[in-house]
Specification:
32% of the residues lie in helices and 21% in strands. With 594 residues, the protein is of the alpha+beta class.
Length: 594
């Protein structure tokens, strides 16, 4: 009985719970309907008001974003930043990075990046210290004392001292080494009284001597045990050279299909942390050497190269290519027509002077593909001793004709002048480049109006060098490097025309005793104003004798894919001086907050 009562109670409780749950569900539905669903209907009349506020909110957000983007230009600018791999293409072959032997464009490029000299140039062509902190000359002008900067290091971590400098210059002076720099160091005594001091004693005064201190210094600890006669072929030169320049050697990789004409060499260099002017900002510098010019041009067009050096002209396929920047780096050099004054019709001073007067040099320069500064005398404009009153005769065709008439060169029926049964005919030798072809063609047209028959002979690079060395020409179109100092002794002193001369760079074979004395006096005076006075008789003789026709200063064509921050467009003493500021070059850009 008791069990049955319990069951009934349990069932009543279940039914009561179910009824309560149903009542709660009904109440919830009524509550949702009253407080939520019925209120949705009230939103419809104000939907336009809500949408309007939403649109206004979106407009305000957009205005704030636009304002921030606009104002960012005031506190953020696009600036160069460190990093990036710089790939420079150079035409030719790489054979030697050692600055005692480097000669080709590729050799000189690598050598300049790896090695450092006592002195270098600033962006305006002025001498400044590189490894040296300063230099002084004594009151006699023949003893130079150079002090090294403290704590200098080689790229292998060893200390660089005056012993390395002493070793470098004594090695250059050793005839068994066969360095191309030897001639400039004959008769000079070099000593190192302490680790930071080097003393140079010259046999006489030489104003241009400090410019000889820009060549690279080599490490004694790596080269001292190599016999002098074996230095030129030492592994140091091509396997792992060690210098103190801005970039250290990393690797050399040869590429190609086996044909020497298509060979390529890839020299990878990395920044040297211990470079005295500061670690370079580039991540890596790669020199790619191409035997074939067209391959280098294609690599540049495909943007495999950051820069291309030494192309004679801008290739047609690159003339209108986006991003390509053309840098015409003016060189401290002179393009001239050198008249061989020792024989033939050009031995006649009046003939040479008439040729100079009949050449419209400004017209020739205007036809070049780049703006060029004219060369009017043997010293460049702006250099010590340059005198604007002693320039070569300007263009005057009438005066040139009158001078030849008075010299007994009448014009024949065929329009060519002659004398004693001999035509006034000259052969002009030049390198076979587009620029020299253009210049020679202009001269041919201009001199034809004078009654001179000009034949042109265009030679390959090797043939042209042979002609220069042997002086096998009547007149030759050639460029000479003058550099930052106006000491042009080697180009115009009569001793440099002698076949026994080491370089025989007097291409005109010009001989004038007054000019010789003036050249010697000018190069042995340190005071700039006194040098100008001493050089004046040479300039007067050169103007009167007309041993050459000055044309214009040549350029180094340097193409870049995009902007290279830090690259200077100032006049360069030499082609490798494009690297004067290389430690500060940058090729990447990023937005930087002011």
């Amino acid at each position: 009985m008791r069990t049955r009562l319990l069951r009934l109670r349990f069932r009543r409780r279940i039914r009561t719970g179910q009824q309560q749950a149903a009542d709660l569900g009904t109440q919830a539905e009524q509550h949702i309907d009253r407080h939520l669903l019925r209120r949705f209907e009230r939103l419809l009349p104000v939907r336009r008001f809500v949408i309007g506020w939403l649109c206004l909110l979106l407009l305000l957000i957009g205005a704030v974003v636009a304002q921030n983007l606009t104002l960012s230009t005031y506190y953020q600018t696009l600036r160069p930043v460190p990093g990036g791999i710089y790939n420079e293409g150079v035409k030719g072959r790489f054979t030697n990075a050692n600055p005692l032997f480097a000669s080709s464009d590729a050799d000189l490029t690598v050598s300049r990046l790896v090695f450092a000299g006592l002195l270098t140039y600033d962006l305006h062509g002025n001498l400044i210290g590189d490894l040296a902190s300063d230099y002084k000359v004594d009151e006699h002008g023949s003893t130079y004392t150079v002090h090294l900067k403290p704590h200098l290091k080689w790229q292998d971590g060893r200390p660089l001292t005056s012993a390395d400098v002493l070793f470098t210059y004594r090695t250059i002076q050793n005839p068994d080494v066969r360095s191309s720099l030897q001639n400039a160091w004959q008769g000079i005594e070099v000593s190192a009284p302490d680790n930071l001091t080097i003393v140079f004693k010259l046999p006489g005064v030489l104003a241009a001597f400090p410019h000889n201190l820009t060549n690279g210094i080599v490490p004694e600890h790596l080269l001292a045990n190599i016999p002098p006669g074996n230095l030129r072929s030492a592994e140091f030169n091509t396997v792992k050279p060690v210098g103190a320049g801005p970039f250290a050697w990393q690797a050399l990789k040869a590429q190609g299909d086996g044909d020497p004409k298509h060979s390529q060499e890839r020299i990878a260099l990395i920044p040297f942390d211990g470079y005295q002017a500061g670690k370079p900002k580039l991540q890596e510098f790669v020199v790619q050497v191409f035997a074939d010019e067209s391959q280098m041009t294609q690599a540049f067009a495909d943007k495999q190269l950051t820069a291309a050096e030494g192309l004679p002209e801008v290739p047609r396929e690159l003339e209108h290519k986006g991003g390509v920047q053309q840098h015409n780096l003016r060189l401290a050099a002179a393009n001239m027509v050198f008249f061989k004054t020792s024989e033939g019709v050009l031995a006649d001073q009046k003939v040479r002077r008439s040729l100079v007067q009949a050449a419209n040099v400004p017209q020739i320069a205007a036809k070049l593909s780049y703006p060029a500064r004219l060369v009017r005398e043997p010293i460049l404009a702006g250099q010590v001793a340059y005198d604007p009153t002693l320039t070569q005769p300007g263009f005057n065709l009438a005066a040139a004709k009158a001078q030849l008439d008075s010299d007994g060169w009448p014009t024949g029926k065929n329009g060519t002048r002659g004398k004693d049964g001999r035509e006034l005919a000259i052969t002009l030798t030049a390198a076979n480049t587009p620029e020299y072809r253009l210049v020679a063609g202009q001269l041919k047209d201009q001199w034809q109006k004078l009654g001179v028959k000009l034949d042109t002979q265009f030679l390959s690079a090797a043939e042209f060098q042979n002609a220069l060395l042997s002086h096998n020409y009547e007149a030759i179109l050639n460029g000479i490097s003058i550099g930052a100092d106006p000491d042009v002794f080697v180009y115009w002193d009569s001793s440099q025309a002698d076949i026994r001369s080491v370089n025989r760079l007097n291409f005109s074979e010009y001989k004038n005793p007054a000019a010789d004395a003036s050249l010697e006096a000018g190069r042995t005076r340190l005071d700039p104003s006194l040098r100008a006075i001493k050089y004046r008789p040479f300039l007067e003789a050169w103007q009167q004798d007309s041993p050459a026709l000055g044309l214009y200063q040549p350029r180094l064509l340097y193409l870049t894919n995009g902007t290279v921050a830090g690259l200077t467009d100032e006049q360069l003493p030499t082609t490798t001086d494009r690297f004067i500021n290389v430690q500060n070059w940058e090729i990447h850009q990023a937005k930087v907050t002011n």
